[in-house]
Amino acid sequence: MTASLRTPWLESRRAAWRRRAQQLGELLYVALGDSAAQGVGTSDLDASYVGLLAARLQRTTGRSVRVVNLSRYGARVKDVIDEQLPQLAGLTPDLLTVTAGANDMRRFDRDEFGAEVELLLGALPSHAIVADLPCFHFGPRELDAVIASRMIADRVRAHRLALAPLHRVTEFRRGWGSFPDFAWDQFHPSARGYRVWESAFAGAVTRRARALS
């Protein structure tokens, strides 16, 4: 995606989610996060992991679902805290998912990252479902992602929140066979890749849905 095309495309995507938020539903699903939560890599909102989880929630509960997607392209953990949590304050979600931290791997500082994750988790409702980081497959960012994922998992458990094991399900598919899991940029998930991401949340979302049924 070139710089000249990126901003209009991203604004179009955010506008599509805003329109989706106007649709009524008996249950409210709120998504926090970065470009993956926006569904970058697929043209269909319903093929994003947020769209797939909304469908899972509706299918399991038999109730309609309104989706409010507060995520933003390029968001780091601090951006979720500063920009997205204030918007969450006026909402009472029945389901809340969080995917953040992948963009922090561009400049990973353990102490800073740990403090920000702790601050974020402390502000979430008790039923929030938080993902660790996706597998970067190779290189120094993957080494950092392993460390960061363990930090997130430990803190999620300490806060007694639900963990979506995103790193494990994406690492399991590491190798040339995972090529179709990625979009044209070989970074963001494709529609097939988002089905893999959805599988990381599936167990926790199904349990939450049953509690709401």
TrEMBL record:
Keyword Hydrolase carried by entry: yes
InterPro entries documented for this protein: SGNH_hydro, SGNH_hydro_sf
GO molecular function per UniProt: hydrolase activity
Pfam families: Lipase_GDSL_2
SUPFAM superfamilies: SGNH hydrolase
Transmembrane segments: none
Domain called SGNH hydrolase-type esterase: residue spans: 31-196
Keyword Transit peptide: no
Record keywords: Hydrolase
Name of this chain's protein: SGNH/GDSL hydrolase family protein
Organism in which the protein naturally occurs: Microcella pacifica
